[in-house]
């Protein structure tokens, strides 16, 4: 699938649509928004999805479903603005597994782009499981996390005031202090995103996260084996 590129024009129309917050403006410019932003994001999702599927056959490739919508769901938020000025895509496993399995993502904002890997949902019980797994499998997890760091993907997420578990080797303490964690790389340079080889470049960067992805997938597999109804209960919410 060819990639048509995300240009400054795409960022401009998304921002203007957000500022105007008008159904009439959106409908008038919907085709332009789709062509400049939504379709290129779907193209990235398709290419990245096929790439990830070679590494993890359980990953799904559904670009129409893994790219965010411009129209916001305002039912459960105080912010009633109709449209967003940013978009994202996620690539991972199917709906019965993805709440507790890692996702790759790519996102565009007016001021930056971002890419990373992590979980969509990390409730306290799952985080407790993650912390114990990381301690017990530090020989696998730390090299994978360090490889991600060398590639520019940094440990991110909100910290507890006090680490939950401190009886571990010092290198693991940053992970023990997180209420949730993910690995994120950001950039304010939009030039690469407009180039036709950007999805392939992104996939090359994702490949450096495969050891970390495998650790996170193993954590999810183990958690769901011990809590088989966890994903089902979440999806019913």
CATH level 3 topology: BirA Bifunctional Protein, domain 2
Oligomer: single chain
Instruction: Tell me the strand percentage band.
Output: 5-15%
**What value does the Rg take, in angstroms?**
19 Å
Shape: globular
**Average predicted confidence as pLDDT:** 90
Task: Examine the secondary-structure arrangement and name the CATH architecture.
Answer: 2-Layer Sandwich
Q: Give the helix tally.
A: 10
How would you spell out the order of helices and strands?
Answer: HHHEEEHHEHEHHHH
N-to-C span: 36 Å
Category from helices, strands and their pairing:
alpha+beta
CATH class: Alpha Beta
Walk me through what this model shows.
The protein has helices spanning 8-20, 23-55, 63-66, 124-136, 138-150, 173-176, 191-194, 198-207, 210-226, 230-235; strands at 87-91, 102-108, 113-119, 154-156, 182-187. It is α+β, with helices and mostly antiparallel strands. The protein has one domain (8-235): BirA Bifunctional Protein, domain 2. Helix 1 (8-20) packs across helix 2 (23-55), helix 2 crosses helix 8 and helix 4 (124-136) crosses helix 5 (138-150). The longest helix is centred in the N-terminal third of the chain and has 33 residues, at 23-55. The mean pLDDT is 90.
